[in-house]
Amino acid sequence: MSPRGGRKAGSGPVWVVLAVVLALALALAASRWSGTPTVAQRAAALDAVLKCPSCDGISVADSSASTAAAVRQVVLIRVREGQSDQQIEQYLVGRYGPSILLRPPTTGITAVVWVVPLVAAAGGLGGLALFFWRRRRPPTTVVTPEDRALVDQAMAENGPVAAPVAAGPGP
Amino acid sequence: MSTGPAPDAAPAVGPRRGRHTARWTAVASLVVMAALIALLATRPPAAATEVYTPLLGQQAPPVTATTLSGGRFHLAAYRGRWVVLNFFASWCPPCQDEEPDLVTFAYQHRAPGDAALIGVVYDDTTAAARAFERSSGATWPTVIDPGGQIALRYGVRGPPETFLISPSGTVVAHLDSAVTAADLDQQIAAARAAGL
């Protein structure tokens, strides 16, 4: 048997083991990603996007304030009751207003907070593009024979210049 | 090429004038700052501010709870009367400030069927709230709110917050910060005038 043939015969079980491990890993990942989240997972996900009512810009998940604890409790109760995330958010918005959401809704007046940064970014990029385009554009100034004559006259009056002046494009 | 001033140029007064402008600007800024500080330091305390709540115009969330004296309380039993629902805590300075005015309001509206004042303890111990109410002479029903679920139903962020509920059970006003008896009377009068 040739050495090459021997390697082929010996690597077979290794590939099988690797394939099994890979299949198991994919199956495990798929089961974790596509499985229905538990009550605790759903409540935790909601807590992370709800703003602590009495704090500055932190979620109820990250706050130890009593208001945050109250919100966590009501979220848990309503998740257990089978309410959807949207229903729970709507309930809290009906109490505290849209500011209870860490991520403002993309509809209504709060859509402004999404649109303004995009418009500002587009304007900024457009301005930069225009700036660089203008810089790269060749100068449109045309040196006329009269201009050249004026320069020659000035140079003749003031004597020779120390450094040569780069000649521009001819007319 | 010469860079010096022309012989017939005007005297160089630019830098001097610039220094004067800067000095006057600094003086003017200081005067404005001093005036602002004086204004803010001497003005009377901020009156209660009416703040938007999504509950405005909605039916007041139900309140069924235990009072500081151990009895049961049902907000629904107050239907037909103006109700002032006041969230407070003994540790909250503005709550301490408004307490004498709440006592005055309760006394002025002590007639049967008149406006009722209801306290809700916010993030405080029952003992501390009870001592606070006793020391101030409060006689109105005050309910405890373990877990802060009543406060959540009303969207309370921090005490003091006061809600005015119409005789039909609708939330008609939400006042942030300390209230006075005059504030409350004014809110009731405005709501009555609006036919609420």
Task: Characterise the protein shown here.
The complex is a heterodimer of chains A (171) and B (196). Chain A is built from six helices and no strands. Chain A has helices at 3-34, 39-49, 66-80, 85-96, 112-136, 145-158. Residues 1-6 and 167-171 of chain A have low confidence and may be disordered. In chain B, strands 1-8-7-4-5-6 form a six-stranded mixed β-sheet, with helices on one face. Chain B has a domain at 64-193: Glutaredoxin, CATH 3.40.30. In chain B, helix 2 packs across helix 5 (181-193). The A-B interface holds A 53-54, 66-67, 69-71, 73-74, 93-97, 158 and B 1, 52-55, 58, 123, 147-149, 151-158.
Average residue-wise pLDDT of chain A: 84
Largest sheet of chain B: 6 strands, mixed
| Low-pLDDT segments, ≥5 res of chain B | 1-10
Question: β content of chain A, as a range?
Answer: under 5%
How much helicity do the residues of chain B have?
25-40%
In the CATH hierarchy, the architecture of the largest domain in chain A is Orthogonal Bundle
In the CATH scheme, the class of the largest domain in chain A would be Mainly Alpha
Work out the number of β strands of chain B. Answer: 8
Tally the beta strands of chain A. 0
Strand fraction of chain B equals 15-25%
N-to-C series of helices and strands of chain B: HEEEEHEHEHEEH
Q: Kindly state the mean pLDDT of chain B as a whole number?
A: 89
Q: Roughly how much helix do the residues of chain A carry, as a percent range?
A: 55-70%
Question: Pairing-aware structural class of the strands and helices of chain A?
Answer: mainly alpha
CATH class membership of the domain at 64-193 in chain B: Alpha Beta
Query: What is the H/E order of chain A?
Result: HHHHHH
**CATH H level of the domain at 64-193 in chain B: which superfamily?**
Glutaredoxin
If helices are DSSP runs of H or I spanning 4 or more residues, what is the number of helices of chain A? 6
What is the number of helical segments of chain B per DSSP (H or I, 4+ residues)?
Answer: 5
